[in-house]
Hints:
By secondary structure, the protein is of the alpha/beta class. The protein has helices at residues 9-13, 26-37, 55-67, 82-88, 106-116, 138-149, 169-172, 185-198, 205-214, 219-229, 237-244, 249-260, 264-276, 281-301, 305-325, 333-344, 347-354, 368-376, 396-409, 413-420, 439-446, 448-462, 483-491, 495-499, 504-515; strands at residues 44-48, 95-99, 126-131, 155-161, 176-179, 202-203, 234-235, 423-428, 431-436, 467-472. The protein has four domains: 25-179, P-loop containing nucleotide triphosphate hydrolases (Rossmann fold, 3-Layer(aba) Sandwich); 185-244, Helicase, Ruva Protein, domain 3 (Orthogonal Bundle); 249-345, Zinc Finger, Delta Prime, domain 3 (Up-down Bundle); 358-381 and 392-515, DnaA, N-terminal domain (GMP Synthetase, Chain A, domain 3, 2-Layer Sandwich). The strands form three sheets. Strands 2-3-4-1-5 form a five-stranded parallel sheet, with helices on one face. Strands 8-9-10 form a three-stranded mixed sheet. Strand 2 (95-99), helix 5 and strand 3 (126-131) form a beta-alpha-beta unit. It is elongated and about 105 Å long. The model is unreliable at 1-8, 348-387, 475-505 and 510-522 (pLDDT under 50). Zinc ion (ZN) is lined by residues 68-70, 77-79, 81, 83-84.
Amino acid sequence: MYPMPEDVSFYRKYRPQVFEDLVGQEHIKTTLLNALRKRRLAHAYLFCGPRGTGKTTTARLIAKGFNCLNLQKNAEPCNTCEICVSITEGRLIDVIEIDAASNRGIDEIRDLREKVRFAPTHAAKKVYIIDEVHMLTKEAFNALLKMLEEPPSHVNFILATTEAYKVPETIISRCQRFDFQRITIDVIVNRLKAIAEMEKISADEHALKFIARAAEGGLRDAIGLFEQMTVGNSLTFEHVKEYLGLVGEKTLSAFIACLLNRDVPHALEYINTLYQEGADLTQFNKECLGYLRDHLLSAVSKDAYNDMLRYLELISAFQEAHETLKSAIIPQLPLEMAIIKSCFGDRTHRAIRTAPTETETLPKVVSQAAQSAQQAQPTHSASPPTHQPSFDTLTFDLICQHWPRVLEHIKTPSTRMSLSQGTLTSLTAQTLTMNFNSRFHLEKVEAPKNRQEISTALFSVFQKHILLEYVLREIMLDPTTSALDRKTSFDSLPTVEKSEEVSGVALAEKTAELFGGVVEEE
Ligand SMILES: [Zn+2]
């Protein structure tokens, strides 16, 4: 949680004075306005929900609704009668706000019981608003219960809590309960925009979004942050970023692009750079989750099934990292593990354990063509073949089918890793074409020394000189790629198929490399 300003003047200034202005709690608004219209209000209400979602504001609106001398047709308070004005100014002695966090004992509640008996001084009804009611002691709850059981007709109670589960069932059953929801980012952003307009502040949309996200559904916190970060008459993203320690959307989207590409080396690099630059990794992880969630929801709305699966996979890994970040001995480690897990899936495990002795643990090859070829030959084993297959006529399918053996012939783990990231696409004459999504891996396989090793491996398997041509399909690591471009290019990727492309061998060695282990060769 960020340090939230205690004295929030924008918040007070723009606190809703009619139900109409209450944002994000539509169902509560409707129910209460109906009740006010019919003059059928409960003796006691219990408002549950996160901080800053409008509980106390609503309580004051009800107090006005009970007492307004000139209630409007739509059941809204008039806000001009003396009762309304004094409630707005917080000086009506018949509306009593009690903070249970600092008045939690039996004595305070006994004292309250004494005072409850007296009739209201100015208004028709006395309204007790008890905030953070869950803080009361057991004895105090018992005393409160007695009041709720036999409430004087001139008294109404509104209890508010952020932790409803700590409120005894006996109390809850005496109240009409309303659950306040976290306010959505869009609703918060719109409210901030309205305030910005009224205050003549030019506010960057990105900045507003980040504030809304950081406030975690609490409008009060959002308005507080907004006020605190406004300098002069403007709110800039740069300033918000500085204040909240944000890494910025460009870095974030470039990082996520690495994950979508399963480009582990670059993703790890991002984390280490961030760490060295002193970024708050917990905050970064939170932002990642927010970003991934936005994209997950967008994928759901578009029925983009593959995207959905991939985002779920990433969210689950980074959610797990969130749990361990707090107690991590090496601060970067939880995020590094999330990267590796989310890019390699549960195969990380299997690959280390069993090493590449069987076809199952070997790559499900590089393309669908290869997969179907494998299915057609279920008895094929990658352990030393009993006979050398004939390659008199070399076809694309044949190359795909035997590609795992080519990878096996490459002894340099990093070269093998990089080559396994490519996708075989075509064969013309003696030239084999391979696509790469990552410039990093493409440059790796193109290095003269590695090129040589790959050619040798090809020759060892097929007994022919085959030329390899590498094509960079999409540059998605460029942090300047716009969100729209990125989305489009990701959509065009065969996500699920891609997830099968990582070689079990390469994976085992890469993982062993990262964790200092050894992969046992058979
Ligand atoms: Zn009024």
